[in-house]
C-alpha cells in the first residue's frame, strides 16, 4: 500500500491481570482507507481501539499514530473517537453537548456553529438540535455521539460499533457519509461484528481470542478460503488458528 501508515500497531500484547486479551498484534492502517476490525464479542476489538486513542496501554509492544508513539496528548486533535457507550450529558441539549465537545477540540465562535450544523446534518438530527439528550432514543444518541466524533474533522476516525441500534436505512446513509470522508482522505477504523458491514470496508482485520487471524480485503479473505461469505471466511480462519 502506498505511503506511510497512519496507524502502526507493533507486537502489541495486553493482559488484564492473568487474562491475556491481545496476543502479538501487528497491523498497519493507511490514510484514506476504511479498515474494519471484525470479531465476536470479547475478541479484543475495543481493547485495540482504546489503545489507539491512549485510553489503555499495551502490556508489550507499541502503538504508533501519525509517526508518534501513543499515548500522546498532541494526537488528541488528530483523531476522533466514538466509544461503544455514549459519553453524552443527558441533561443538556444536543447543541450544548456539541458546544462542550467542540470547545475541548479548540473550536469556537462561527466555526463551531458551522461545524455543529454540518455534523447534525450528516447524522440527520438537525431538527433535534435543541432537544435534551435524555429525550433522545438510543439510536439518536448513537448518531449524536458520531456527530461529536466528526466535529473537529479529524484525519483519523476511530469508531467502536458506530451503527449498533441504528436502523438499516440510516445505517446506509451513515456509510455513505463514511465514503465521503474517505474520499476527502480521512482514514476510518470501524469495529463491528456485523458481517454485511464488514463487506463495506476496504480491508478487514479478523480478531479472535485476542489474535489477529487474518488481514485483507473482503474479496481476498473470501478467495483465500474459498468462501462465499465473510462469515464463512471467518470460520475457516478461526478453525485454522
Ligand atoms: N478493563 C478491563 N479489565 C479486565 N478485563 C477487561 C477490561 N477490558 C476488557 N477486558 C476483557 O478483555 C476481553 C476483550 O474485551 P474487548 O472489549 O476488547 O472485546 P470486544 O471484541 O470489543 O467485544 P465487544 O464486541 O463485546 O465489545 C474481554 O474478555 C473483556 O472481558
From TrEMBL:
<dbReference type="InterPro" id="IPR017871">
    <property type="entry name" value="ABC_transporter-like_CS"/>
</dbReference>
<dbReference type="Pfam" id="PF00005">
    <property type="entry name" value="ABC_tran"/>
</dbReference>
<dbReference type="GO" id="GO:0016887">
    <property type="term" value="F:ATP hydrolysis activity"/>
</dbReference>
<feature type="domain" description="ABC transporter">
    <location>
        <begin position="7"/>
        <end position="234"/>
    </location>
</feature>
<protein>
    <submittedName>
        <fullName>ABC transporter ATP-binding protein</fullName>
    </submittedName>
</protein>
<dbReference type="InterPro" id="IPR003439">
    <property type="entry name" value="ABC_transporter-like_ATP-bd"/>
</dbReference>
<keyword id="KW-0547">Nucleotide-binding</keyword>
<dbReference type="GO" id="GO:0005524">
    <property type="term" value="F:ATP binding"/>
</dbReference>
<dbReference type="InterPro" id="IPR003593">
    <property type="entry name" value="AAA+_ATPase"/>
</dbReference>
<dbReference type="InterPro" id="IPR027417">
    <property type="entry name" value="P-loop_NTPase"/>
</dbReference>
<keyword id="KW-0067">ATP-binding</keyword>
Amino acid at each position: 500500500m502506498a505511503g506511510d501508515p497512519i496507524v502502526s500497531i507493533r507486537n502489541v500484547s495486553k493482559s488484564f491481570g492473568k487474562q491475556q486479551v491481545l496476543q502479538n498484534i501487528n497491523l498497519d492502517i493507511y490514510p484514506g482507507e476504511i479498515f474494519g476490525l471484525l470479531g465476536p464479542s470479547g475478541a479484543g476489538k475495543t481493547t485495540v481501539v482504546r489503545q489507539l486513542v491512549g485510553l489503555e496501554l499495551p502490556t508489550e509492544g507499541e502503538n504508533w499514530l501519525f509517526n508518534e508513539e501513543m499515548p500522546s496528548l498532541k494526537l488528541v486533535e488528530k483523531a476522533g473517537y466514538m466509544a461503544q457507550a455514549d459519553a453524552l450529558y443527558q441533561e443538556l441539549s444536543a447543541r450544548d453537548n456539541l458546544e462542550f465537545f467542540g470547545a475541548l477540540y479548540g473550536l469556537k465562535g462561527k466555526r463551531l456553529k458551522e461545524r455543529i450544523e454540518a455534523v447534525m446534518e450528516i447524522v440527520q438530527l438537525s431538527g433535534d438540535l435543541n432537544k435534551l439528550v435524555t429525550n433522545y432514543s438510543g439510536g439518536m444518541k448513537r448518531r449524536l455521539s458520531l456527530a461529536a466524533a466528526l466535529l473537529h474533522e479529524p484525519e483519523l476516525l476511530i469508531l467502536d460499533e458506530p451503527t449498533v441500534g441504528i436502523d438499516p436505512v440510516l445505517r446506509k446513509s451513515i456509510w455513505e457519509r463514511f465514503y465521503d470522508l474517505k474520499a476527502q482522505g480521512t482514514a476510518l477504523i470501524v469495529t463491528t461484528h456485523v458481517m454485511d458491514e464488514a463487506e463495506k470496508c476496504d480491508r478487514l482485520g479478523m480478531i479472535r481470542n485476542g489474535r489477529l487471524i487474518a488481514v485483507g480485503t473482503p474479496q481476498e479473505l473470501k478467495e483465500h478460503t474459498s468462501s462465499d461469505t465473510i462469515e464463512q471466511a471467518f470460520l475457516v480462519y478461526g478453525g485454522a488458528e
